[in-house]
Design brief:
This protein has nine helices and 21 strands. The chain is an alpha+beta fold. The chain folds into two domains: 159 residues, 3-Layer(bba) Sandwich (FAD/NAD(P)-binding domain); 159 residues, D-Amino Acid Oxidase, subunit A, domain 2 (D-Amino Acid Oxidase, Chain A, domain 2, 2-Layer Sandwich), CATH 3.30.9. The radius of gyration is 21 Å and the shape is globular.
């Protein structure tokens, strides 16, 4: 009988927890350490909501993974024992007639070819079905009923509880201090409180901190701060599905997207743009210039929310790669070290399939490893998720 393999995972966010559970199911001995608590307040995945969608322009890989994930989110609701994924639909709108080459057009074409039942919308239909929108600004688009949003922070908490139940050892309040090494080989990590953890393989799932901890990756990935603003609407029901599902407002050109209101009236609005490069340990402050920019968007797109009180801001950190693709591979110069990073601001939707994707890369499963996520050199690249400027 083969000896049980052991893995030490640094970081209990989305990548770390999904991988921990999957490798535990495959028979690995799994230890997970995090500066904690879990969920960690500074982790990108610790939030009130994340979009779940399959719409990725003409990109067949992301579309396939998105469809697999959307199909499995309802299963996760049952497995996790709570309705944490809300299939309210995904409203994709354009400020001009959709045309070939545009994100909205290519998404519609590919998903329709794959058999998805999308509802094409014009301004008149938009005004009737979704009255909060300034319909004359958005003459074209569609509603994808298979999509919605997940309560991301609550999902992380439930994943951590499940992982513990399944035999994953989770150590909180254990901040990474350095690697334990034998020559060029990584054999574990040392934490700031002096503890040492050793394993056959160490997996770094440290999100925006990754290029700081591994400077050799600084040319292919970096931390960026993305502003998220929370407003309060007075009549929450009018800002919830089906009248107001998850939405993207000409996102291929503008980056604007957002969510239905929570029951307390919290309306989350965000922008999927280039952001600004930051150090992950810097104060998470949103620039005062952001509120006027967001309110200008609200006035133009959701006029009745233009004066809604601002109740909170958040600087969400991405670990962006140069091409917008994830980074799941063994370190080529440091045996014993695996890197799972590069969320690029669009990872959470794939939560139900991520553990298997990363675990296949850990186990060097040649049939299932996704080439696009391998260790690679920087090239001139662009994709829906890319941030390189």
């Amino acid at each position: 009988m083969a000896a049980t393999r052991s893995i030490l995972i640094v970081g209990a966010g989305l990548f770390g927890l999904t991988t921990a559970r999957e490798l535990r199911r495959r028979g690995w001995q799994v230890t997970l350490v995090d500066p904690g608590p879990v969920p960690a307040p500074t982790a990108a995945s610790t939030d009130i909501s994340k979009v779940v969608r399959m719409d990725y322009g003409g990109d067949e890989l992301w579309t396939r993974l998105g469809r697999q994930s959307v199909a499995r989110w309802p299963e996760w609701n049952r497995e996790l024992g709570e309705t944490l994924y809300h299939e309210d639909g995904f409203l994709v709108l354009s400020r001009e007639v959709m045309k070939p080459g545009g994100f909205e057009f290519e998404s519609h074409q590919l998903l329709t070819a794959l058999g998805e039942k999308l509802e094409r919308l014009d301004s008149a239909t938009l005004a009737r079905r979704f009255p909060n929108w300034a319909a004359d600004r958005y003459p074209d688009g569609y509603l994808n009923p298979r999509g919605g949003w997940a309560e991301s922070g609550n999902v992380i908490a439930r994943l951590a509880a499940k992982a513990r139940d399944e035999g994953v050892q989770i150590f909180e309040q254990c901040a990474f201090a350095g690697f334990l090494e034998r020559g060029s080989q990584v054999v574990g990590v040392r934490t700031k409180d002096g503890h040492e953890f050793r394993a056959d393989l160490t997996l770094l799932a440290t999100g925006a901190w990754t290029p700081t901890l591994l400077p050799e990756l600084g040319g292919v990935m970096w931390a960026t701060g993305q502003s998220v603003l929370h407003f309060r609407v007075a009549n929450p029901a009018a800002w919830q599905a089906p009248r107001f599902p998850v939405w993207a407002a000409d996102i291929g050109r503008t980056g604007w997207y957002g969510f239905p209101a929570l029951n307390d009236g919290t309306l989350k609005v965000a922008n999927h743009g280039p952001g600004r490069r930051v150090h992950p340990d810097e104060p998470r402050t949103v620039s005062p210039d952001e509120e006027p920019r967001f309110r200008a968007f609200l006035r133009d797109t959701f006029p009745t929310a233009a004066d809604a009180p601002l109740i909170g801001t958040r600087l969400c950190l991405y670990c962006d790669t140069f091409d917008g693709n994830f980074w799941f591979d063994h370190h080529p110069q440091r045996p014993g070290l695996f890197v799972a990073a590069g969320d690029s601001g669009h990872a959470f939707k794939f939560a139900p399939v991520l553990g298997g994707i990363i675990a296949d890369a850990v186990e060097r499963d040649s049939e299932n490893v996704i080439d696009r996520f391998r260790w690679r050199q920087r090239t001139a690249a662009g994709s829906e998720g890319a941030r390189a400027r």
